[in-house]
Amino acid sequence: MEKIIFAGLTINKVSIKDLLFNKVMLLSYILLGLACVGILEIFDLRYFSEAATAHASGMDPTNPALKEAMKLAVFGTVGEVSREVPWTLFIVNYMYMIYTGSGIIFLVALAELMNMHLVAKVAAGFMVTGISMVFAGLFTIATDLNMLNMLWMILTPNVNTGMWLMLPLYCTYIPFVLFEIYLILTNKRELAKRLALPILVLSIGVDLVEYFIQAKLFSMNTARHLWTEFPVLMFYFIISAFVSSLGIMGVYSYLVHKNKFEYKELMEKIRKAMLFFISILAIYEVFGYMAVDKDWTFLILFGPFKYVYFLGYILLALALPFLLVIKPGKPIWTLISSISVVIGGYVGRFLFVYGGNANPMSNRFGTGYETYDFYDIASHFNYVKPHLGEILIVFGSVGVCLLIYKLFDSLFSIGDLREH
Hints:
- With 420 residues, the protein is mainly α.
- The chain has a domain at 223-360.
- Helix content is 73%, strand content 2%.
- It has helices at residues 16-20, 23-47, 54-59, 64-75, 89-113, 117-121, 123-145, 147-155, 162-185, 189-219, 225-229, 233-257, 263-291, 294-302, 306-325, 331-358, 388-412; strands spanning 3-6, 9-12.
- Strands 1-2 form a two-stranded antiparallel sheet.
- Helix 2 (23-47) runs antiparallel to helix 17 and helix 12 runs antiparallel to helix 16 (331-358).
- The radius of gyration is 23 Å and the shape is globular.
- The two termini are 23 Å apart.
C-alpha cells in the first residue's frame, strides 16, 4: 500500500471507497441510522406531546395541569434529571462508555510507565479504542441534554452546571490523548512515555469530575440512598471500570492480534490484570452491601432486580470470569471472560443507575417518605423501563466507536505492532 508522510505521520493512501464504504464503516452507518431514528423518537416525545394542545390552551389557559404539560413539552422528560423521572439508559451508557474508555487509556499509560514493552507496542490500538468510547459517551450525553437545553446552556452559561464542569476537562483530556497517539504513531517513544503520567492524572481526573457531577445532579433532587451512602463510591466506579476496560482490551486483542505471535502473551497479561481487579471488585461488593442502606440492599438482592443482579452482574462480571482466569490457560478462556465482563459491567452500571432511582426517597424532614410527584402516592419502588429511542441511541453510540476506530485504522494501521 502506498504511503504519505505528513508531520511525521505515515498515512495510508486509501481511496474514498475503501475509507468510507468498507464493511465496518457500513455497519457503523447502520447503527448511526438507528440512533437517528431514536433521536427522532425522543424529539417527538419531548416536543410534540399531545398533552399540551392549542385547543387546551385556548379553553383553559390557567389550568395547572396545562402549565405542567407545556413545561414538559419545552424542557422535556426523557433522560432529564428530575424527581419525577428517574435517570435513564442515556446515563447508564454515558457512564459505561466514559469510565471504560478512560479506564483503557489509564491502563495503557500505566503499562507504559511500568515498561511493559508488549503493551507499548500495541498501545496505539488500545488508545484509539479508549478515546472512541469516550466520544461515544459524549455522543450519548449530547442527545440526553437535548437541543433546547444545550442552546440555553450556551446562551446563559452557568459554570456550576454539569455541562460547564465537563467541558474544560474534556477539552484538555481529549487533545492530550490524541497527542499521545500521535507520538506513538510517529515512534517518539520517550516523549510518549513522559506524556503517560499527565494522561494518568487526567484519566483519574475524568473519573473524579464525572463522579462529582453525577453526585451533584443527584443531590439537586432528593437523597438517593445508593449515591449518598454507598461506601467509598468513587472506588467502585474506578475498579468496575477497570474490569470492563480489560474486557474490551481482551475482545480487541482477539479481533486484531489473534493470528499474530504476540497474541498469547498479550492475553496472558490481560488475564492476570483481570484476575486482580475482579478480586478487588468482589471484595468491594461484599463490603459495600454490608455497609450500605439496608432498604436498598434488600431491594437489589431480594426485590425486582434480584435476577438481573445475580445472573446479569454477579455471574457475568465476577463469578464466571474469575473461574475462567484464576489459572493460566488457553487465550480462549480469557476471551470468554472478556466478553462476560463487558456484558456484566454494563448490567452493573444499569443496576447502579436504575437501582439508585428505585429507592430514592428519604425521611429527612420527619414527615414520611418523599413522593416522586406532588399528587402521587408515595412508593418504595420507582422504575421506568428504557424507551425504545434510548435503546436505539445506545446502538448508535457503538456505531460512533466503530466509525472513529476504523477511520484511524484505515489511515494509520493502528492495529500493527510497533517496535520501540
